[in-house]
Write a structure and sequence with these properties.
Helices cover 8% and strands 40% of the residues. The chain contains 5 helices and 22 strands. Strand 17 (292-301) and strand 18 form a beta hairpin.
């Protein structure tokens, strides 16, 4: 999923964690100017960081394609011929609007994705398109070719219909049979990405809860949460050594843009040092049990941002303000950090936590 890149000026601000006075049970929202978010919109707003829906449609059918390396052009040619017996995204009318997308892995961002045109209203689309990659043969032999089939609906949302992966390291380029069109059965995604099971690196950070005393009252009624993002270590390299990473923070359940703060981008290193402190104010003691700090690390490249990994720091109860939510899923290490912060006000609590795969809540306008 690409994530709109904006200037970093907003990241130094602090945001009000306000509440709706008439309805204490309403969903708490971070920013007094961002308006209330309904319960249903937040609980239903979790999506994959990958652009598309992996879970809903059955994977079936086959794809016919051929690959060839053209030495004179130093190009890999992927000839996508057709698919047959695809799953129907529109069950009633028994049809889909499919297209084929290709990547060279593991450097997904380096060579970019190539895709065919969308063929509408069919389960047996014919493409007869050549997708070309300019790449040295020696480098090609270290890659995997991923072809995936997707349905694109009228709102430009994508649904996964299946994929095939070829290991080019073991591919026999001299065998003429390998240049012929072949049928391959489409397979399900075993994981959203090869990074799923791999190390995504770590984040060094510190949190502090600062209660705000109110004149004339002994006990503070609200406080600030300070988040000090120090550095990341061993981030995954999606584009070789061209990493340009930044960290974004929101306090769930508020997914509005006004809840978002972020660091500057640090380039050309897998161990970026940010030393950036973010402040959120207006936390009541009871908000600390319902809210969750979501920190995500992104690689900014051209006009898109690629997700690298993230943390969700909270009590991990699975609920927020009485509603079951997917994002209240903190690991035991993340919970331990939040507990220490809540129990030790006015003290920086430091930790180094492993970054993980997250389902990211959509940012509301």
């Amino acid at each position: 999923m690409s994530d709109d890149r904006e200037t970093d000026t907003a990241s130094e601000s602090s945001y009000q964690f306000s509440r709706h006075k008439k309805s204490p049970s309403s969903l708490t929202n971070l920013s007094s100017s961002s308006g209330m978010t309904s319960l249903s919109s937040v609980s239903g707003s979790v999506m994959s960081v990958y652009s598309g829906d992996f879970g809903n449609l059955e994977v079936k059918g086959n794809i016919q394609f051929a690959i060839d390396y053209v030495d004179s052009l130093k190009e890999l040619h992927v000839f996508v011929a057709q698919c047959k017996d695809l799953a129907a995204a529109d069950v009633k009318k028994q049809r889909s609007d499919p297209y084929v997308k290709t990547y060279l892995l593991p450097d997904k961002g380096k060579m970019g994705k190539k895709k065919t045109l969308v063929v509408k209203k069919t389960l047996n689309p014919v493409y007869n398109e050549i997708l070309r990659y300019k790449i040295e043969k020696q480098i090609l032999k270290t890659q995997k070719l991923n072809l995936s089939v997707w349905h694109r609906d009228t709102f430009k949302r994508n649904s996964f219909l299946g994929e095939v992966e070829l290991d080019l390291e073991t591919w026999d380029w001299d065998n003429k049979q390998n240049k012929q069109l072949k049928w391959y059965p489409l397979k399900r995604k075993t994981a959203p990405t090869a990074l799923e099971a791999e190390n995504r690196g770590e984040m060094k950070l510190a949190l502090q809860y600062v209660p705000e005393p109110i004149p004339g009252k002994k006990l503070p009624t609200t406080g600030e949460v300070h988040i000090w993002v120090k550095e990341c270590v061993d981030l995954p390299q999606l584009r070789g050594s061209h990493l340009n990473s930044f960290v974004k923070c929101i306090i769930l359940p508020d997914t509005s843009r006004k809840s978002r703060q972020k660091t500057r981008a640090v380039g050309k290193t897998t161990n970026p040092v940010f030393n950036h402190t973010m402040v959120y104010d207006g936390f009541r003691p009871e908000d600390l049990t319902e809210a969750c700090v979501e920190l995500t690390v992104w690689d900014h490249y051209k006009l898109t941002n690629q997700f690298l990994g993230g943390l969700r720091i909270g009590f991990g109860t699975g609920k927020s303000y009485g509603t079951e939510v997917d994002w209240m899923d903190s690991t035991s290490e993340e919970v331990a950090l939040w507990e220490k912060m809540v129990n030790s006000p006015n003290t920086w609590i430091e930790a180094t936590l492993p970054l993980r795969m997250l389902l990211i809540a959509k940012i509301s306008k």
